[in-house]
Amino acid sequence: MSSRAPVLALIGDRYHNADYIRLALGRIFQELNVAVDFTINYEEIGAARLRDYRVFITFRDGYIWPDGYQSAVMYPYASFLENRNKWPAEKPVGWITEEQGEAIKQFVEAGNGLYAYHNSGYISLYSKNYREVMGGVTLQHPPLRPFKVKVVRDHPITQGVQDFMVNDEQHYLTFDKDPKNIILESENVDGLTHRSYGAKAIGGWAYDYGKGRVAFTAVGHNIHALWQPEYMKIQKNAIRWLLRMT
Asked: How many Cβ atoms sit within 10 Å of the Cβ of residue 237?
């Protein structure tokens, strides 16, 4: 751990390779001239690990597969493997404990920041404490497709940001807090829906929690989405806001 890094980022899972996340976020933090420590070890997250940081980033989902799985992604060919019947059954469980969720909540309440990216709303399925501080939970998402991200509220995170198009997973979420804290909305401009959720979804939110701050932004399944110029502005603004640099 770097003693000068104010930010700790928990990254990577079965469907989101830690390498592209580290590369994408590494550029953003380098341009901000802010140090960041990365970890893939979800088991170490707790009060002791968070103690020396000012912002905690979650950029992974809530699932682990203790008994293993067939492939890193669910491509159709996995069902045609010669020895498929000898592979373990894919039974996901949550990695986060309520004690870990409580540690994250207390970390923010004390005056620090939480930046939840993309698929981190799935962690809320397994921890009431984490959901309480993050502010919501992911419902579903369709495959990659183009959609527009719109600014719906003036906020330090959206300052100088224009609406933009991105090719990404359009995540649908439930937001538990005051709707006035929603800062971004995603919309499939072709009118494509997903299940019964419609063409529009929450794209991001930001609010104060205790003495600290919380931000969530939904875009992030691939590096070209993370490096979309307007979205890079959002991410940089969010980090500045959470670190109280502005």
From this structure: 21
Q: What is the pLDDT of residues 183-205, one digit of tens each?
A: 999 999 999 999 999 999 999 99
Q: What is the amino acid identity at position 114? A: L
Please state the separation of Cα 36 from the chain's center in Å.
Answer: 16
- Structure tokens belonging to residue 97: 């404990």
Phi, psi angle pair for 229, to nearest 5°: -55, -45
Is a pLDDT exceeding 70 seen at residue 73?
no
Q: Which residues contact 156 (CB under 8 A, 6 or more apart)?
A: 237, 240, 241, 246
By CB atoms closer than 10 A (0-12, 13-18, 19+), residue 232 is middle
**Three-state SS at 15:** coil
Domains of the chain: 7-135+206-242 (3.40.50)
**DSSP structure class, residue 110:** T
The Cα 149–Cα 184 span in angstroms is 7
Beta strands in 95-141 (DSSP E): 113-117, 136-140
Torsion, Cα 46 49 51 53, to 10 degrees, reads -120
For the beta sheet containing 7-11, the strands, ordered from the edge strand earlier in sequence to the opposite edge, are 36-39, 7-11, 55-59, 113-117, 212-217, 200-209, 182-187, 145-151, 164-168
pTM for the model: 0.94
